[in-house]
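Record pair follows.
FIRST:
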Amino acid sequence: MKASKLVLGATLVLAHACTADLQDSTSMSGSGSGQGPGSGGQIPRPGGGSGGSGTGGGSGGGTGVVDTRFNFRCQDETAEPASDLRRLTSEQIRNVYGDLLTDTVGNVNDQRGADERLELLPEDLASATIDYARMSQSVGQAHVDAYHGSAAAFASITTETNARLSSLMGSCATNGNGGDDAACVRNFAESFARKAWSKKPSTVEVDFLVNDVYAANGIDNDAVRDLVTAILMAPDFVYVVERGGQEVPGHPGAYQLTGYELAKRLALHFWKSIPDEELLDAAEDGSLLTESGYAAQVERLVQDPRTIRAIDDFFEQWLHLDRIPRLDANIGRADFRAYAGEDLPGPELSDRLREDALDLVRHVVWADAAGTLADLFTLRASFARTEDLARIYGGVDLYQDGAAPPELPAGERAGILTRPAMLVNDQATTRPSCGS
């Protein structure tokens, strides 16, 4: 697997290969020694070598000029080419928060704060130019507000009591031993960022989180909340950030995915969420990049119940099941009521048609060990769970979970394409028109 190498434009730390000059803008009376570099000084690249030295020592009297403008520029010869970042879908963000809450504080009874904020996330929608909702990449103020609100709510929930704080950070956060507080905070910053970002944070990133974001002595709940919020607002959490590892031989500009990048792709693909600890460990020790290690992790991910929601979502979007119209929209019209007769649809029928189609998919994918793609288009099984849907199928027996589905009469309906979900519309007219 390959990924285009990119540079993250807005990170918690300075991007490498870029420098900044401070420009004079405001003067104040007074004198100064003028200590510091002269013109041409560069900000060192994080984790790398130092920038070029200034051309002057800056000694001598000064006017006390206050510099307030940053002009950033990148060195063309060392700057990495930029590439688009793919953001997580709104559904993936919701799933990630649910998994993080479960992993950090267990089953929290009251998650309304986070849930209410997550509900503000704009839905990803298909359109005339976007075939599938997951391809929507628009980002507006509503996204930013929901991201920040969800992060802040999560931070509040997970630090609400000492028990939750201990579950989040470890017992060192509440044991009253001030001697290990610094190590406790740093270890938490590193481990939680690893979990949320699906990568091992660099020393520079951890230093920034501890020294600039947490910036408190001892265990301070407000500082913990700031730290958690910052991690959950970072680009590495909201976006799929792939810088790549080694360049692919014979393919200039293409780079092998790192273990962590591959782990995040797999988790988003199968679980619509982020990797768990086992997958992250496989990424860190390199086993995920081996053929056997990769196969073992894929098999484990597929068997996890979270994969069901990803399979459901794929078929729902592929078959446009999310576009089934409200079938009761025209019940106020006399001609529609006359046409429907005793089969007048209720408000739940649209959702029941959707579930009927998905039940067929689930049966072929999960219940039938020998299920094939051909079965999806030929299987003569009914998954009607309610009488109104059973009448559409001609009065078949109701389907029960765990039981073999009733078989439809030969020559009538077969497979997904003849499901009511694929055939219905919300029109109240008929062609040809029926005379009165």
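SECOND:
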Amino acid sequence: MTIPSRLTFALGIALLLLLHHTVRPLLGWRIEVDWQVIALVLVALRSRPGIAALVGFVLGMVMDAMVPAAFGAGALVLTLVGYAAARFRAGFFGASVLLGTVIIGLGKFLSDVAVVVAEGRLRGVGFAVQVGLWSPLSAALTAMVGAGLLGLARTEAPGPRRR
């Protein structure tokens, strides 16, 4: 990866994190795009598992700082998502858009469930609606947006041109 492409990638990740912490809270939708999970998976698909886990931990700590009642849950889940994304890419599938989309969706769903469980403020029907309706819909929307961004980012390095 050349220096200009690394700089472009870093600026793209910074833009996703800026969107996550500025635009997302202003919208206040029940079904939201988690730009932080998308940024994590984009980083994980271009790095080794240890680096991806570290990035996930840092992003999770930032997320947990904004929800003090569930401190630690987001860091744990995003660390596992980052590690799993990088490990699956390296071990099984390569850097495919489908793999990234599935990991983005699962990562968003797991982070939502972990935060809701760790907070402990929703019980009964409220918990069931959050985990059974809003979290899967948010995960699906995040996965769809992530698929588009993965297609744009072209996480696969192009091979040599054949004549």
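COMMENT: Residues 3-153 form a domain with the Arp2/3 complex 21 kDa subunit ARPC3 fold (CATH 1.10.1760).
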